[in-house]
C-alpha cells in the first residue's frame, strides 16, 4: 500500500496543485475595509475567527489583499488556497468549494451580513422589501458582488463598473446611477463620512446572507480532511459565547 503522503501528492499533481507540504495556507480577500468584519491591517471579526481556526488546526494563514474579482479568479485557478468572505451562489461552486459542498453549511459560516439600497436624498426610487418602484436608471453594484444577480433576477438594469464603494458612491452622487447596492458595513461608513449628508439608506435590506471561507478545488481535493477541519474550527469558534458577544457588540456599534 502506498503511504498516505504519496497518495495525496499524486492527487495534487493530477490537479496541477501539490498536496499541502507545510502548514501555510494562502487566503485572498478584497482590498477594502468592511467593518466590523475586516480591516486592511488584519483586524476585525473575520480575522479573529480565522486566527482561532489556525490555532485549532495547526495551520498558518498567509493573507493577500487584492480586488475581489481577481481574488475569485486566483481561487478558480488554484493560485491561492482560499478566499473570504464569499456569499454563496451556485455559480461560484465552479470557482471553489464551500463548507457543505453545493449547499453551503451556514453553521460553518464566517458571518452574516446584508446588502442595502442607497439613493440620493430626494430620489424617488424605492424598495419595500418585496418590490422596487420608480426605477428610472441603473443600479450600481461593485464588480464581482453577488447582489448583482439578485437585481438582475428582478429585471433591473445593473452597472458593475466600480471596484470600490467610494467610486460607486461618487457615481451615484454624479447622477450616473439611480441607486446603488452596498454591503451593510460600507453603507454605514459612507453615511458617517463627508458624503453622508447627500445619501440615505432605505430601511428594508435587499438581502441578508451568510459569508464563508471558500477553499480552492485543488486544495480541498488534495487535503480533504484538513479542509473539513478548518471549516469545522471556524464554525466552532464562531459559535463560542465569547465570539458571539464580540460580534453582537461590534454589529450594534456599527449600525448605530
From TrEMBL:
InterPro entries: Solute-binding_3/MltF_N (IPR001638). The keyword Signal applies. Residues 1-21 form the signal peptide. Keywords: Signal. It comes from the Bacteria. Residues 24-251 form the Solute-binding protein family 3/N-terminal domain. The keyword Signal applies. Pfam families: SBP_bac_3. This is Transporter substrate-binding domain-containing protein. It comes from Massilia terrae.
Amino acid at each position: 500500500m502506498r503511504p498516505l503522503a504519496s497518495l495525496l501528492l499524486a492527487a495534487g499533481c493530477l490537479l496541477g496543485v501539490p498536496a499541502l507540504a507545510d502548514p501555510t495556507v494562502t487566503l485572498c480577500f478584497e482590498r477594502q475595509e468592511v467593518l466590523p468584519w475586516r480591516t486592511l491591517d488584519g483586524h476585525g471579526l473575520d480575522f479573529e475567527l480565522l486566527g482561532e481556526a489556525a490555532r485549532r488546526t495547526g495551520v498558518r494563514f498567509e493573507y493577500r489583499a487584492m480586488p475581489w474579482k481577481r481574488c475569485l479568479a486566483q481561487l478558480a485557478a488554484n493560485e491561492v488556497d482560499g478566499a473570504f468572505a464569499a456569499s454563496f451562489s451556485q455559480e461560484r461552486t465552479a470557482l471553489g468549494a464551500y463548507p457543505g459542498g453545493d449547499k453551503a453549511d451556514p453553521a460553518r459560516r464566517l458571518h452574516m451580513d446584508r446588502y442595502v439600497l442607497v439613493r440620493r436624498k430626494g430620489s424617488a426610487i424605492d424598495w419595500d422589501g418585496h418590490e422596487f418602484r420608480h426605477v428610472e436608471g441603473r443600479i450600481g453594484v461593485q464588480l464581482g458582488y453577488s447582489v448583482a444577480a439578485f437585481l438582475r433576477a428582478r429585471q433591473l438594469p445593473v452597472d458593475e463598473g466600480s471596484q470600490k464603494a467610494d467610486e460607486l458612491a461618487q457615481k451615484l452622487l454624479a447622477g450616473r446611477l439611480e441607486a446603488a447596492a452596498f454591503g451593510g458595513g460600507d453603507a454605514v461608513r459612507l453615511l458617517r463620512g463627508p458624503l453622508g449628508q447627500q445619501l440615505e439608506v432605505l430601511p428594508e435590506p435587499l438581502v441578508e446572507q451568510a459569508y464563508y471561507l471558500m477553499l480552492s478545488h485543488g486544495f480541498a481535493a488534495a487535503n480533504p480532511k484538513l479542509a473539513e477541519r478548518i471549516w469545522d474550527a471556524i464554525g466552532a469558534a464562531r459559535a463560542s459565547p465569547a465570539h458571539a458577544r464580540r460580534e453582537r457588540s461590534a454589529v450594534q456599534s456599527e449600525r448605530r
